[in-house]
Amino acid sequence: MGDRDEAFAEYFAARSAAMRSTAFLLCGDWHRAEDLVQVAFTKLYLRWNRVQRHDTLDPYLRKVLIRSFIDEGRWGWWRRERPHDRQPEVAAAPVPSDDRVVLLAALARVPARQRAVLVLRYWQDLSVEETAAALGCTAGTVKSQAARGLETLRALITQPVDAR
Amino acid sequence: MNEDDPRGIVDEDDVRAAMRTTIARNPAPPPMTSASALAAARRSARRRNALAGAGAAVALAAVAFATVPLRDALGEPPMTAAGDGQPVMAPSAPVETPDPDDTKPSWPAEASGDATYDSGTHYVKGKRLLDEVLAIVPEGYTAPEMTTPEGMPSRYHQAAVEERGTGYSAYAFVAKGGGTGRILVEVRRPGDGLPGDPCELARSFWGMGGVCEVSTTGGERVGVVKSSSEERLDQWAAFRHEDGTVVFVAEARSADPSLPSLRDVPIPVQKLVDLATDERFLLQ
């Protein structure tokens, strides 16, 4: 195994689980999440020599993952999975109350960029600036998208959840 | 609120707690292995090199004795492009023999890790759709061949396995006056299960919703969304042809966050409507 392969394998072992959880929150499906992670790591592998510094690996990988998720033109599986999902402004039915799907179902109705902001800010605990870098937008946009995303979630998650 | 309970999201901490709970209560499959990830990545690299072989042959035939002395801005070996705009290594790069698996029809596409065709009839139709997209680039615009810093190609096509049948999509960046936008066409085969009403059909596109109105052209009714909360696309038209094929024609002023946007969308609404009904996108 060459140096690149060895370093890549080590990095994958260290970071793939965290990236997969992030992808799962974005798309709501473990298999799709693994697709996204594989795509992101493959792109990283192809550009390994350009992204040599370890402190830049995570931001690069995160950016590719998010872009792959957001860009429906290239990755259409999310809409294929739920082709008739309606957007929050037209959704009338409440989110299912099953406690295991309630957040995922609500997130699925949050527009993709807002969803990405919520996951990066509140799951990965990135700063506003780091989130902006991952999404390629301004800090102001991150703040407004986060506020709108939270508002959407509040509106969607209204039904009580059974105690376990 | 109870931090295990996602029902009462009020603030940021509630979202954090709900996300932790959601991950904890949705058991993950076994960990992905480094070996399989590395194998997939190496297949992808091998395929890129294999494409370089094809690109090199074409380049050498077309430009005899030409040399490519420059290195790109990132210090990588010089790049050229295959017929479909995919970046490939220049002739001087080492070339590997493609795997037999790379040349036979396959699904799911193991190498690329998603539900898209890598070869075969559907792949060819997806590629043809990109040709059609390039053919509708408005006069005065160019269709640049490039790759964004995040690795997104400026031209792309795919044939993907949908819930019912096959879907084809293709896009091209279009540039004018220093700005770059995007034109995209998606074709869904009959039996797709999409809504029949023109506006419901248009709003179903990528689940984006939006404000829709029906436009007519040649007696046909086309759903048009000219505004939505989505940032990915600015407007799009949707039409179900007589044989049941659905065509979405979409455009965006922005192609990628790394590039300046166009000042206006490249295609007027009425033209979008006309294109949605154009039989060229039936891919027959």
Explain what you see.
- Chain A has 164 residues and is mainly alpha-helical.
- Chain A folds into two domains: 1-76, Rna Polymerase Sigma Factor, Chain: A, CATH 1.10.1740; 94-164, Winged helix-like DNA-binding domain superfamily/Winged helix DNA-binding domain (Arc Repressor Mutant, subunit A, Orthogonal Bundle).
- Chain A is built from eight helices and no strands.
- Chain A has helices spanning 3-27, 30-46, 54-70, 77-81, 102-108, 112-122, 128-135, 139-156.
- In chain A, helix 3 (54-70) packs across helix 7.
- The N and C termini of chain A lie far apart (48 Å).
- In chain A, 51% of the residues are buried.
- Mean pLDDT of chain A is 75; it is low at 73-97 and 159-164.
- Chain B is an alpha+beta fold and 284 residues long.
- Chain B is 26% helix and 22% strand.
- Chain B has helices at residues 12-25, 34-62, 120-135, 198-204, 269-276, and strands at residues 79-81, 87-89, 155-161, 166-176, 179-188, 211-217, 220-227, 235-240, 246-252.
- In chain B, strands 3-4-5-9-8-7-6 form a seven-stranded antiparallel β-sheet. In chain B, strands 1-2 form a two-stranded antiparallel sheet.
- Mean pLDDT of chain B is 74; it is low at 1-6 and 52-114.
- Chains A and B meet through helix 1, helix 2, helix 3, helix 4 and helix 5 of A and helix 1, helix 2, strand 3 and strand 4 of B.
List keywords for this structure.
heterodimer; A: 164 residues; mainly alpha; Rna Polymerase Sigma Factor, Chain: A; Arc Repressor Mutant, subunit A; 2 domains; 8 helices; disordered C terminus; B: 284 residues; alpha+beta; seven-stranded antiparallel sheet; two-stranded antiparallel sheet; 5 helices; disordered N terminus
